[in-house]
Amino acid sequence: MDDQIRYSIANSDYVPFSINYFNGTIMLIETLDYENVKKYVIQIQARDEREFAENISFVNVTVEVLDVPDNVPVIRNSQFDIYINSNLGIGYIVYIVDACDIDSNTTLQYALSGLDRQYFDIDHFGVIRLSTEFGSKKEFSISVTVADDMAMTTSASFSFYIDSEGAFPAFKQLIEPKITVYENVTDYFIMQFETKNVSNGHRYSIAAGDCFEDFEIDSISGKLFVKHVDRERIPKFHLFIAVSDMNVTPMHTSYIEVTVEILDSNDNKPRFEQAVYKASLKENELKADVLLRVTAFDDDLGSNARIHYSIIEGNIGDAFRIDPITGDLRNAIPLDRETIDKYRLIIEARDSGEPPLLDIRIVDVSVLDENDNPPRFSKLLNVQISEGTKIRDVVFKIKTTDPDSNENSHNTYSIIAESQEKEIFVINSKTGYITLGKSLDRESQDRYRMKVVVNDGLFSVSTTLTITVTDVNDNAPIFSQPLYTFEIDRNNSSFGSIIGKVSAQDLDSGENSTIQFGISPESALFEVDPLTGEIMVLRSPTSFDESEFHIKVYASDNGVPPKSGVTNVRIVLCGSIEKVSARDLDSKESVKKLSRETIEVSARDLDTTEPVENLSRETIENDNIKFSIMPVDHNSIIVNLEEASSSVAPTFRDKNVIFELSRRSKNSTIVGILPVDNTSSSSSSSRKPVFFIENNNFLRVLQESGEIILSNAIGANMNNTFSIEAIVKNSMLRHVPPSICQVRIMFNDYAPTPVFPEEIYIVSFNETTSKELLRFNFIMPDDAEFKILGGNDGKLFCISKTGSLTLCGAPTQREHYYTLGLGILSNGYIRSQTTVEIHFTNTINTKFRIYPGNRMAWVRENISPGIRFLRLKPHLDDQQNSNFIFKIVDEEMSEFFQIDANSGVLSTKQTFDREKRDAYLIPIAIHRNETTQPEIENITVFIDDVDDNPPEQSPIKVFVFSEESEFFGNIDQLYPPDEDSISSGACSIADETPSLNIKFGESCAGVFESVPSGKHHIKLHYRENDLLIKYDMELLVTWLNEKIIDNAILIEFLGTDRMAAEFLSRLRVSLQEMV
């Protein structure tokens, strides 16, 4: 039975049956009555939940009700006082008891009783005949008892009176008392009866033999008609026709017997013995042996029941033939399981009637596997693992495909490598899982190459496995010196002068080794270049009172989490020293670093059959070098190096920059933005400009953007102007001097420009919301204004001079949310900035439901990717038709599954292993259309198990609670420990323990009788094909005595594994903290 099929009865309101939702078992839910309904047709619906919800199939199941004799016979006679002919001879009919039993296939037995029973006999048709002459006796009284096969009886008493022969009507002699008629004819005239010796009129009737009223006789004319007969129900009728005088009570009646034989018509089609036939044979074999014999029966006779068999569908390649007379099925050619592993043949049984009738049956033929195909690796084995991987963690699973079946693809895996690598990487020979045996250190070795071999018992194949160790941020930057000492010439140094450089190294790679420098906050007179480590002075040293400074410089990497190091810097002010100049290009060092990277690229690319890709780099660490790598052939490359142009260095647009600022401005007011040319659009941080301003008490600069921000209130005694120097540089172009400009701040007493108090505002709107979305209640000076700085490409939003943000446009395509950049400008300069997030919500009723059965699906493990297993079917509460848009919103789940955005069909992207993970919870965003907010539905996907792992020889523990001192009952599935949840073997007791009465049935179910409470150790055997597993069972039987019962709560959960899984799935969704 396929665990993914769900069953239901489509016409359940009209049949007294139910069906198990999971396994398709049909159950009776009401008492049947054959006499009421003899046949039911059940319409079974099967739905495959792995595929589309529309993948539904129907089949009709016919249930024929078998009759049992549960009804008492009934005597239908209405005359109990009867005249009999005085001239009646021995053996002639006296009277006929018309007894019937509506049960089918029952035989009635008749018996006489009473004082006068010696005068009469009664046969199995209920015909009472004279057995002895009357003599002088004129009245007789008898009783008749009728019994069926179940000894249920009914009785009636009759009185007979002698009268002269002339008072009785008499039948004329019949030419032929036996007649024939074809079944299924209706209202068909058979014959006519005639009488004599009638003076007072007469009437005809059917006295007996027609319990089901299949015949009808005209009471006046004596014409006999057949209403409807079925030969398969009653092939022959013994009718007793009566003629009686009229208007006389009791009546004078005579009888005549007529035999009606029913001839066959072809009204029954052949019927197969079985509903479904199954057969199997091994591939590559051609045998004359019969795979199976199909047999059909026909209730008709003669040629109407002569059956011919043929294959009408599914015989691909004429692989099979069937004997038309016997129904013997054979294969005609050798079969290949890897081409077709199962044939579904449609067999026809056709009779020889006119017209012919037929029936069909399905024959499923399974082609059994032979090991005739080698295993194959599913893909190139290149793996990246983190050096932080823990010992015994799974590194990789060797995945192979084998066209052969599981029975012939039990692969064993091994690694051919140096002994050291075998210790680092351990492979499970049965599962192919490679786990880590020793800790990794990327800095010692970052790549391993080994050969993986897979053997299926006959074939052996191998491939190369390359494992690359990726970096973990496990090294902090280390400064080259614990203490740096630099000297400053007090007289020859100025703002921006470089006084020295610190350097640090990080042994990690990639972002984990990218270092940024910073300086302790209390060192306000100095600044460090974040990329180069160069320390510069932020104010002319002539104003320094101290002669020596001690500062701390930090080096942090870009790892997650970052690691950092610290060093101490001693700065000494002294007399004149030679000015430090920018370091010349160290080509030798750059080429050396470039060679390392080039070799790594070559090793990566030249090891494959693919051509080497062009590679370019703008700079190498701290040098202004540009280089490119171009392939020549499979084994060589050309490296070009050139010095970066100085024209890319950032320079101030003006050497003198003037900003105006109100003395009453608030903290965080943007004073202005330093204007710069030659800023690169590259995302590389090495090409971004870095800004510095001279040390002061109330202004600071954002190093990346050049925005000058007010950091402290302006004192009332501040002069009308204030000047500082600013520097912009590219840290990578160290041979190019920085650009310097003079910044002049002009103070005024105007009303201050307001500042946005929040960095971000969030608002929502819908169709019914007023057009105003947000209002800023600021007092704006005359020279200030609001402005939308970005995110308003469609001109959908407007902001007024008074700070009212409104919806002012009609979008051609409305988004779900918008992000606007707002600014407050004064004389064209940005003074404050903020972000506004605007969320659009739809007012149309978009509430929909996903029914519980549509929230769960099952995927079998080890199935190839691309399987479509579920279609989501949202149901709208307002019953409106709508198109939905679907999207998986979890990045991790997107690696395993994909969903068609329009149809909602879920499919797999990977092959699953239930033993690693047996369930997935997929959050899916569902939009009714592109203008609605999504609703999130969680879909649970269970991984169905296949028996792909051998059991373990480990003990099992079983705990049983018994209400008696001895345990009586069954315990299911006492299998040995197994990663799989399904097994097909059998269990038995290895050592028969006389004191324990334990037997095993199907599914390793243990039947326990009189097992005393306490602990028992039992040795068990498990057999599955040729596999034998020996394991121990520790059985602990606890007697629930009164003390335990009084102090305990027992909870019993009854249900199948699948019911429990569905219950837990709903619980998981409801209680998110359990997930």
From TrEMBL:
Natural source organism: Acrobeloides nanus
UniProtKB keywords: Calcium, Cell adhesion, Disulfide bond, EGF-like domain, Glycoprotein, Membrane, Repeat, Signal, Transmembrane, Transmembrane helix
GO molecular function, one term: calcium ion binding
Gene3D superfamilies: Cadherins
Subcellular location: Membrane
Any GO BP: epithelial cell differentiation
Pfam families: Cadherin (PF00028)
Protein name: Cadherin domain-containing protein
Membrane topology: Single-pass membrane protein
Record-annotated Cadherin domain positions: 4-75, 76-171, 203-272, 273-377, 377-479, 480-585, 851-953
